[in-house]
Amino acid sequence: MVSNLRNSWAVAATTFLLWGLVAASAVYWGLKLTAKPGGATGGPPVVAPTVNADPAAIAALLGAVQNTGPTPVASLSSRFSLIGVVADQSHAGAALIAVDGKPPKPFRVGANVDENLVLQSVDSRRAVLGPPGSAPALTLELPPPKP
Length: 147
Known about the structure:
Layout: H1 5-34, H2 55-61, H3 76-79, E1 80-87, E2 93-99, E3 105-108, E4 118-122, E5 126-130, E6 138-141
Antiparallel strand pairs: 1-2, 2-3, 4-5, 5-6
């Protein structure tokens, strides 16, 4: 009698795999048939109420320091930057002014530059701003030319 050792291992492995599949199928269907209808809890899911977070409390937890002093206000001279001037002998003309870091815009003498300031006059390298019909409040000068 001749036995093929390789063939007997293949038969044993195949048999083991088939019985493993049978066992897995039996466990699956057993769990499926014995499960409660409606899921594991038997009722609709419970939704937790939303909590509104207090930003000041979160900032304090993260180490923020509360500023009790007045809010710093930018000075007038730091808000405006003179880019260019077109002037004549009578101090009329226009100035190219950047306000609050925005792109520069052209303003004619007498035009509102800000809600309280108008361009009062221009000179060869300077522009004077102030409230309408009042004394000058701010003088803007062009930076010195580069050599």
